[in-house]
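Troubleshooting: if your tokenizer reports a length mismatch, compare your output against this known-good record of 250 residues.
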Amino acid sequence: MTQDRMIAVRNSKTVYRDGNLKLKVFNDDYSKADIFNEALNQARIEETGLHVPKVIEVAKHDGKWTLVTDYISGTTISKMMQEHPENMDEYLEMFTSLQVEVHSKTCPGLVMLKDKLKRYIKKSDLSATDRYDLYDRLTAMPAHFKLCHGDFHPSNVVITEDGTPFIIDWSHAAQGNASADAVRTYLSLRMNWGLSAAEMYIKKYCEKSNTDIDYVQKWTPIIAAAETVRGNEEQREFLKQKIDVRDHEE
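Known-good structure output:
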């Protein structure tokens, strides 16, 4: 196996293409358990019928743990949005329809989203009072069991030459409330694409999923708090502005 082209470099991993394969090579300090869990997530999601890259193996290559999957040749929705911003409405229409399809699936083997969110909030640097309020709010939210991608944004959807959409990078997948997953996408779009794109997206999502916008927004402080453990300083400051629980109470 050779690494003939570098695709991306992240803090904890480097991604390569090897012919029809994609190699995600993890740094030495990356959790072995998390690597195998990501592979297991993706293998389970293959069974839902969604178009996702198939897992080939998890093995050590040149002394580093590597997750090997199919390489999906195509263009991400993110790149399409960058190259043709005049078609933003069309691209977000396709993007949102695909997310609603994801939420129509179930995958019982995945971790519960509420449990993941509670762990993230616990790791945050929020005050004990804020964390307590957020735990209470999270506990009170309806318990659903829908498939949630956990990081559904335009760069994680690849459109192949024949128009087939493939969803990649399922490391944050969980089962839970679809509106929580939608808020995660909204906040990501807001930080990376601006208010206009984010508002266009959430309007489409609520229409397609037949969900009231007020209900979706109740997840905002919870998801924002959980997301403060990721991202850069500017993003964390933006997210902290969305955490005031009182602003979202009835």
